[in-house]
Amino acid sequence: MISFNPASKTFKLDTPNTSYVFAVGKEFGHLVHYYYGPKVSDDNLSYLSLQDPNATQAWVEREKLSYVDCVSFEYPTGGTGDFRTTAMEVETQEGYSVLELKYDSHEIYKGKRKLSGLPATFAGEDECQSLDVILKDDILGLKVVLTYSVFENLDAITRSVKVINEGKAIYLTKVMSTCLDLYNEDFEVLKLCGTWARERRMERYPLAHGYQGISSKRGISSHQENPFIALVSPNTTQTQGQVYAMNLVYSGNFDADIYRNQFDYARMTMGINPYKFKWKLETNASFEAPEAVMVYSAEGLGKMTRTFHDLYRKHLIRSPYKNMKRPILINNWEATYFDFNTEKLLDIAREASKVGIEMLVMDDGWFGDRNDDNKALGDWIVNEKKLPGGLKYLVDEVNKLGLKFGIWMEPEMICPDSDLYRAHPDWAIAVPGRVAGKSRNQYVLDLTRSEVMEHTWNSIKAVVDSANIEYVKWDMNRPLADIASLGLDNDRQGEFFHRYVMAVYELQGRLVSSYPNLLLENCSGGGGRFDPGMLYFSPQIWCSDDTDAVERLRIQEGTALVYPLSSMGAHVSDCPNHILGRVTPFETRGHVALAGTFGYELDITKISKEDRDEIPKQVEMYHKYNDLVREGDYYRLASFADNNEYDCWMVKAKDESEILVTFVSVMNRPNMKPLTIKLQGLDASRKYKDLESGMVYTGDMLMYAGIRESRIWGDYKSKLIHLVEVK
Ligand code: DGJ
Fold first, then answer.
1. 587 lines ligand 1 (CB under 6 A)
2. Quick one: pLDDT at residue 58?
3. How many angstroms does the Cα of residue 443 sit away from the middle of ligand 1?
4. Which of 363, 420, 672, 716 could anchor a disulfide with 584, C-beta 3.0 to 4.6 Å?
5. Which residues, other chains included, contact 586 with Cβ-Cβ below 8 Å and sequence gap of 6+?
6. Integer distance in angstroms from the first to the last C-alpha of the chain?
7. pLDDT at res. 60
8. Measured between alpha carbons, how far is residue 639 from residues 557, 558, 647 in Å?
9. d(C-alpha 317, C-alpha 323), whole Å
10. Annotated catalytic, 642?
11. Is residue 27 helix, strand or coil?
């Protein structure tokens, strides 16, 4: 899968359908990028490296600066005349910033090495092959290792970067994880943007000259920006067109930049955001940048999506739950907010146990003096006024009802009105001498300090050890600002953002390795940290605080563009919806939540009898379809965001034996033509039976003629179509 041609010094990385080719440039020993795209049989591609149409070899000899600004580089650096966006920049103690990396050596090996302290994809020796290319700047004594991995049966390439300092202490001011110089085929940019309660909406526009992209400076990957970017050829759809996509396995400040240059080539880079990043690298010290995933599809967005889903399900999510049906949970947040006690929770659990719900999750408000969102974060001691007998009593009682128990925590936070803050005001992130800004009346703990980290770990551990807790919802409700750490020297303050993310990874790593059977769900004010870094620790992430079924269509469509359905936290909540006031049918809410982890977020003791009676049917539906939804191949068939009428997706079993189509009629109009739902990705000759109508279709009928659906009377109605293979 990975080969090296010693005569031309060319590297070729082949996946089942793609080739990625680069070489050691003849001119100056830089790594020069040749090609990424559909599989090619030869590596003789050096003619592709110069972007200037007038460039000649003779010209290159006398015009190094112009050469450097027009060659396709594999890992471009700053200071020597490449005026496009760069992948790496440094600052020496003298204040100089020239860095020139030249090929030194390489190694091709089976399997994949771990990144220290960072989440990353993993694979066994028989599933994956990797390449380390070692580059050096001899003047600075800096060594840079570019690592690439390719996986069996997947059109994905992962990349990461390690910097080793063999010279004098130096500052790294930019270390991107990947870079890709591309011949621009009139590309459009695709990204996922949003806000709180409206996360990950797809946005697409033509690639303009100059810099553009998506980045976060909030200390978290964020609601507003997701660490995903793609270039797509014009008219790309779910089933056709070229897609070059990147996704960063990281949960903090990231930057995904695309620069269109004077020759109309595009350079994509992705990595830690250089904003406020300055990392001091002492002699013999090293720095590892997070892993980036690159996916190429020549068959539109759908193929890209399924590559990401397969890669993440098999090679990124570690939890033993990844291949298991998750317990159907009921969370009390929208049911009670802060107003609950043992009795109320047991009432909910009692009713829940009667309808097949399997776990009660107690959300915010169970600890310290927390009766609203103004205080007590950091005081992780149970509030016995609300929960007499403590967690142990409550959990035992819930367990007696046959339900598991899960708990909410927000371990990274500290409220100014908390015992923890009164004891350790300096543990909150703040610049000495300045009053730091609050958000939701809370500060963020400086987890980069070991005493703060150890205290936080002990608090989490004490809670989890105090009762039979089988699930933790790890929340994080504000961005980072007022950055400073009392634990870092002045010339290391620029390391704060990354050190913070590493500390969160350390805590979550300890949690999942100390409690291997614990189900961890990440959350950040809804979906503010829905990224591959978090997926490494938790098999599911709360998608959004917006549980309205119609809004969820777009949120889940954008999320599922990259992240597997098995990871999307989705619940049925009560109506009118608490965020929008919209009323949707209970059944539709169930069908939409079925595309994710599935659960409830309502007061089951108060909802109408009619809705309550629906729950056992929904529970049955979940048990019937969850294996298929969690493990199958996802195809987006229609988007309400595009057609303003209806949404439709399907999941096909890996062995193609069954298909589940979900159809949501959002806006109905009179006298419209019947709807035709055309399925995708089927074997034309297989036959499928619609179990409800009894109709038998061949695969080609389903793909080309489609299923005829009459309009469903009423807005927001939905329907499942279950097709089972018949021989
Ligand atoms: C934000 C989360 O997204 C909600 O589900 C809930 O847990 C609240 N925080 C609690 O404060």
1. no
2. 76
3. 16
4. 716
5. 572, 575, 610, 611, 614
6. 37
7. 81
8. 8, 10, 5
9. 10
10. no
11. coil
DSSP symbols for 681-710 = S--TT-EEEETTT--EEEHHIIIII-EEEP
CA distance 12 to 20: 6
User: What DSSP state is assigned to residue 595?
Assistant: T
Half-sphere exposure of 120 (CA within 13 A, CB side): 24
CA 333 to chain centre: 24
Distance 71 CA to ligand 1 centre (A): 49
Q: Is the CB of 333 under 6 A from ligand 1?
A: yes
| Amino acid identity at 104 | D
The minimum-distance atom of ligand 1 relative to the CA of 373 is 11
Rounded distance, CA 583 to CA 564, Å? Answer: 28
Instruction: Ligand 1, residue 544: give the atom nearest the CA.
Output: 3
Q: Give the distance (Å) from ligand 1 centre to CA of residue 408.
A: 8
Give the distance (Å) from ligand 1 centre to CA of residue 477. Answer: 8
Asked if residue 523 has its Cβ within 6 Å of ligand 1, the reply is: yes
Which residue's structure tokens are 């290792």? Answer: 145
Residue stretches of the chain with pLDDT short of 50: none
Q: Report the number of secondary-structure helices (H) and strands (E) in the chain.
A: 15, 38
What single string gives the DSSP state of each residue in 171-219? EEEEEEEEEEEE--SS-EEEEEEEETTEEEEEEEEEPPSEEEEEE--SS
Left if phi > 0, otherwise alpha if psi is -120 to 50, otherwise beta: which for 348? alpha
Tokens of 72: 């396709």
Contact 137 CB / ligand 1 (< 6 Å): no
475 CB near ligand 1 (under 6 Å)? yes
Q: How far apart are CA 500 and CA 498, in angstroms?
A: 5
Pocket perturbation via mutation, ligand 1, pick of 413, 538, 542 by most ligand atoms within 8 A of CB: 542
Is 475 among the catalytic positions? yes
pLDDT reported for residue 128: 98
The one catalytic residue among 14, 137, 155, 475: 475
**Checking DSSP bridges between strand 413-414 and strand 404-409, what pairing results, if any?**
unpaired
Residue whose pair of structure tokens reads 């046959």 in the numeric block: 402
Ligand 1 pocket residue status of 525, Cβ below 6 Å? yes
Query: Residue 448, Cα to own-chain centre: how many angstroms?
Result: 23
Three-class DSSP labels, 125-182: CCCEEEEEEEEEECCCCEEEEEEEEEECCCCEEEEEEEEEECCCCEEEEEEEEEEEEE
| Mutate-to-test residue for ligand 1 from 222, 364, 548, 601, highest number of ligand atoms within 8 A of CB | 364
Closest alpha carbon to 356 in 611, 620, 538: 620
Q: Give per-residue pLDDT as tens, 348-396.
A: 999 999 999 999 999 999 999 999 999 999 999 999 999 999 999 999 9
Tokens representing 395 are 């959990």
| Cβ atoms < 10 Å from Cβ of 426 | 11
Question: Could you give phi then psi for residue 583, rounded to 5 degrees?
Answer: -110, 120
The number of beta carbons lying within 10 Å of the beta carbon of residue 506 is 14
Compute, in angstroms, the gap from residue 419 CA to the centroid of ligand 1.
Answer: 22
CA distance 208 to 512: 44
Ligand 1 lined by 542 (C-beta under 6 Å):
yes
Which atom of ligand 1 approaches the CA of 523 most closely? 3
Which pLDDT value is given to residue 674?
Answer: 86
Ligand 1 contact, 477 CB (< 6 A): yes
Ligand 1 mean position to 600 CA, how many Å?
Answer: 14
Structure tokens at 528: 């503010």
